[in-house]
Specification:
homodimer, TIM Barrel, 6-stranded parallel beta sheet, 10 strands, 14% strand
């Protein structure tokens, strides 16, 4: 019915970072190492291990280096981290075996930028130009550009498409001026404001302004629309997604009172959707579910993933 | 982008029945009455209160009559129940104020039919012809025909489209032979096997075989595809859905080991999606979220609904 569905979808696993970063306490290293090692066996090609941020601000990530060194790195898997500034980048760059690449991060609103990075969105842009110099010094091409809060922001409300397109223009202009190829452009629904139709319109607009560039999505399931947004993106031919095993993660600023807002779109549920739609992912769903269950055991409370609790129909399918 | 999206979507609320039916124990009447009364204030036009089934088989529903009599019935709201046979129908028919209508239920597999109704799918068909006579005796037209396990069955596996179409043919033939208008045809993903593309194909096929009939969907979020399936159905112009506040429900036969499989698609999350897509529902989302939180308080554990935990972005939108 839809001919634009991609044939292969690539998942960038963020569970170890998104899931544990939001926890108030630091979980024992041993469990997190086992968890990442389990993910390494699933067929995932990229795993975001930790955030290299201020340990005082994010104590749960204060052992990022130790964790990185303790995991068993599997050949063919790229182990990455998150950094928000040059200092964070240099921390990860100092680690043997870390996958390094050039990445710039833009915000659509001052409020979110100030909260996350203690600078306005415009100041953040200027900092990204400095980051490009740092990547150049390491010989790393600009590979990814993230537009955060690309659909809405809990602090500033709805984000108009024109603001996103202005961020896109900034990326395009930099690349043109500095003679760089366009990076992958990630639209991040940081706090779960996207809806399937708005998402399609935004993809269409960004695609129109960045011919040839690959578009990726970072989606959250904050308000129950994650799977619908994922499917809408597939319908637009999008083949690159950030996701979290077991649906780990969730922005603490997105929750009502003492509740927990749901996390990122759930890797294994979305892999399952792909399989049902005939889209390849290179991921072993059984192993992914096992990793999700391990995460739940470590975190110690039910996690949002669905298929990890309901089981896989293909097992039944084979049995009958 | 998609012009087939409906302008108005009708939700049949099943939370009070789906949610409490699967519980091992019977919850106190008072809380369930308060819950249903809260739902009555949301703008919902139809609420399924209870199952009128064998109290020995389903003890949690053994006070169905008492519950029905205790709720405050609001004008304009239709209070219904589930029945599987003539005896169940006569129980609800005896209740003052119950909304009665003709309904037939078909299975795609013998295994599920035997488990739910202790008869084969073919025997079930014959029983439905008897049910039609019972409805005729009450002067009730055939309003709904349900095809259960229309996408797959945990006991028998994948259900081919031809099996569903054979059920559709049975409905069409009965209506032609008995000179009845076609009922609403509900495709029920009883244990969460549907995927967005397969769903679209099935809707297309059923629509082709039943010109003019309204198609409804009963969807479960068992494997995390509920919201995607809901959106895919909207794309096909479907405007009639069963759903459960807070995502209550979930077939006990769909869970892995001691886990709980996710329940029906979540009313307030899907209402939120509709609002974001510019589709009207007649439902007050704030009141719906309040009812979901009340359900969680009564059940006493976190329920699957997302927006009930993350809160409503429109509040923020208004504030800024």
């Amino acid at each position: 019915m839809d001919n634009r569905l991609p044939k292969f979808v690539e998942f960038h696993e963020e569970g170890p970072r998104e899931g544990f970063q939001i926890e108030k306490r630091r979980f024992p290293l041993e469990g997190r190492v086992r968890f990442i090692n389990a993910l390494s066996e699933t067929g995932l090609k990229r795993i975001q291990v930790a955030s290299f941020v201020n340990p005082k601000a994010v104590p749960s990530m204060s052992d990022a280096e130790e964790l990185f060194k303790a995991i068993t790195r599997r050949e063919g898997v790229r182990y990455t981290g998150v950094w928000l500034n040059k200092r964070g980048f240099e921390r990860i760059a100092a680690l043997p075996g870390a996958y390094l690449y050039g990445k710039i991060v833009l915000y659509t609103t001052d409020a979110f930028s100030l909260m996350n990075n203690n600078c306005t969105a415009a100041q953040m842009r200027r900092k990204q130009i400095e980051m490009l110099k740092a990547y150049d010094a390491y010989g790393l091409p600009l590979q990814e550009a993230y537009i955060l809060t690309a659909f809405g922001c809990n602090l500033s409300g709805h984000v108009p498409l024109s603001t996103v397109m202005d961020c896109v223009k900034f990326i395009v202009d930099i690349c043109r001026n500095q003679n760089r190829p366009l990076p992958h452009i990630f639209l991040a629904d940081t706090v779960g404001w996207a809806n399937p139709e708005g998402l399609k319109r935004q993809i269409e607009a960004v695609r129109g302004a960045t011919p040839g560039a690959r578009i990726g999505l970072h989606l959250h399931d904050t308000r129950g629309l994650g799977a619908a947004n994922f499917y809408a993106a597939l319908e637009m031919g999008i083949d690159l997604f950030d996701s979290s095993v077991a649906g780990l993660g969730g922005c603490p600023f997105a929750a009502f009172k003492d509740n927990r807002a749901a996390g990122n779109i759930c890797t294994e549920d979305m892999v399952f959707m792909c399989e049902e739609l005939g889209i390849q992912t290179g991921i072993d769903l059984q192993k992914m579910i096992a990793a999700a269950r391990l995460a739940e055991k470590i975190i110690g409370r039910p996690l949002p993933g669905k298929i990890m609790h309901s089981g896989l129909p293909s097992i039944l399918r084979k049995a009958c």
